[in-house]
Amino acid sequence: MAMTEVTTEVAHGTAASFDLAAGDSIRIETPDGAQGGDFSFPGFDQALTRNKLGWKRFGQPWLVYAAEPGDSLFDVDGNPVFELTAREGEGIADIMYPGCWDEVYADRRPGCQDLISAALGLERRDLTGMLSFFVGYSADDIAYRGLAGVDLKPGDNLEFRVIRATNCAVSTCPDLDIPGWRKGHLLVTIRDAGGEIPPGAGPEAGAGN
Ligand SMILES: [Zn+2]
């Protein structure tokens, strides 16, 4: 079966959802280096993911701040659902933050939590994890200092391979005060594997990650 590619533009302050099969891929790009947003899927457990990736990287019960290519994103049952396969640019794939929400804005505009939960058809309380992309950070003994400024370039991107069939959503963050960001849109490209699951993309893939 032929591979098909569909690109969706996600405007500033909005989110879009995507239905994905195992073997598909999803690529998120900032075409003009303007800004990032959040990514999530039903049951995403970012705390468990931090810990599993810490074990994988250090053999210790340590937590990591971000996913890197080769890392899986896990659900609340401990199953790998996505694998980050590529990431280009200075911005990291942060798995610390919960995403923004309406209360953080004086005008109560919908935040990434509101946008993504609506796109997934979930109550906001049922959104269990977020991955914030194209953000900078620093860290010390006191705090993880995210949203610390980042120099994005046109074409910066990250790409995931789908390990288990799921839906997911991508938001273009409505925040206009993040250092290094300006108002922009994102491009999300779904590559449909046509039902053919490439080697290594089956349900068992990434189980040790
Ligand atoms: Zn946001």
Description:
11% of the residues lie in helices and 33% in strands. With 209 residues, the chain is mostly beta strands. It has one domain (4-192). A 6-stranded antiparallel sheet has the order 1-14-3-12-7-6, with helices on one face. The longest helix has 13 residues, at 46-58. The radius of gyration is 16 Å and the shape is globular. The model is unreliable at 203-209 (pLDDT under 50). Residues 38, 99-100, 111-112, 173, 175 line the site of zinc ion. Zinc ion binds at residues 38, 99-100, 111-112, 173, 175.
Topology, element by element:
Layout: E1 4-10, E2 15-20, E3 25-29, E4 37-40, H1 46-58, E5 66-67, E6 72-74, E7 80-88, E8 92-94, H2 112-120, E9 131-135, E10 137-139, E11 144-146, E12 157-162, E13 166-172, E14 186-192
Antiparallel strand pairs: 1-14, 2-13, 3-12, 3-14, 4-9, 4-13, 5-8, 6-7, 7-12, 8-9, 10-11
Number of strands: 14
Going across the biggest sheet, name each strand in turn. 1-14-3-12-7-6
Shape: globular
Bound chemical compounds: zinc ion
Taken together, the total number of domains comes to 1
Q: Which bin fits the share of residues in helices?
A: 10-25%
Number of helices: 2
Gyration radius, to the nearest Å?
16 Å
Beta-strand percentage? Answer: 25-35%
- Give the CA-CA distance, first to last residue: 30 Å
